[in-house]
Amino acid sequence: MKKLLRNVLRSSWLQRAVGFLAAEYLRLVWLTNKFSFDPPGVYGIVEPEMPAIFAFWHGQHFMTPFIKTKASHRAKVLISRHRDGEFNAIAAERLGIGTIRGSGDHSGAFHRKGGVGAFKEMVQALEGDWNVATTADVPKRARVAGMGVIMLARESGRPILPFAMVTSRFVRLKNWDSTTINLPFGRGAVVGIDAVIVPPDADAETMEKLRLQVETYLNEATRRAYAAVGRPEAALG
């Protein structure tokens, strides 16, 4: 029975159906929430920095495709090769976001999960004038920024732009990254924090300081975003 269920979940028709429905649901959420932006002229600030590395926390990823508001905002997102990643990839592509498949984890699983190839593809995307979106934390270590995003910035020479995108109405799962399923008919907020620049000659000490800075900025963006939608307590989840 378990094998049958596993085969059904891996079937391409089910993955396409779930991805399609997820994309259209998220579109509904985007259209029925009134979003505010902090700072108000955030796009005027961000556009001169493009292509850039947009970093966010795991579990807050569902609404991130909607930070792209113009056709000129070409973007690709890093999505894992896990089965759940297939659904996310199909949904992202339907919402106009390109995908790069692999892991942002730089632990022992980096090679096994396609991390090397994904890292090279992200660097190539940035060189080709694509923005790259990726979670800053790595699996099983929620809200602890990994070194992957720092390495990507050092290698590509592009800035890291930490941000949070939240809604006032949501369901939060009790899993390792506290996945937040955004709900329609509420308020939303997008909060961007100052860019983090990683010098091409950054040593280990500098990279660790910048990793902590990314972590601090993302926590601050999350705090401000939930405060903006009247749910300050949600930033602790």
Structure description:
It is a single chain. This protein is α/β, with parallel strands linked by helices. It contains 7 helices and 9 strands; from the N terminus they run H-H-E-H-E-E-H-E-H-E-H-E-E-E-E-H. The strands form 2 sheets. The chain has a 7-stranded mixed beta sheet, with helices on both faces. A two-stranded antiparallel sheet has the order 7-8. Strand 3 (75-79), helix 4 (83-94) and strand 4 (98-101) form a beta-alpha-beta unit. Helix 2 crosses helix 4 (83-94). The chain is globular and about 45 Å long. The chain starts with a helix and ends in a 9-residue tail after the last helix.
Annotation keywords:
about 240 residues; seven-stranded mixed sheet; about 40% helix; globular
Rg value: 17 Å
Count of strand segments = 9
Strand order of the largest sheet: 1-9-6-2-5-3-4
Note the main sheet.
7 strands, mixed
Determine the strand fraction and express it as a percent band: 15-25%
Estimated structural class: alpha/beta
Estimate the mean pLDDT confidence: 90
Q: Ranges with pLDDT <50 over ≥5 residues?
A: 108-113
* Total of helices: 7
Report how far apart the termini are.
35 Å
The amount of helix comes to 25-40%
- The succession of helices and strands, N to C, reads HHEHEEHEHEHEEEEH
Rough shape?
Answer: globular
Quick recap of the structure?
This protein has seven helices and nine strands, in the order ααβαββαβαβαββββα. The chain is α/β, with parallel strands linked by helices and 237 residues long.
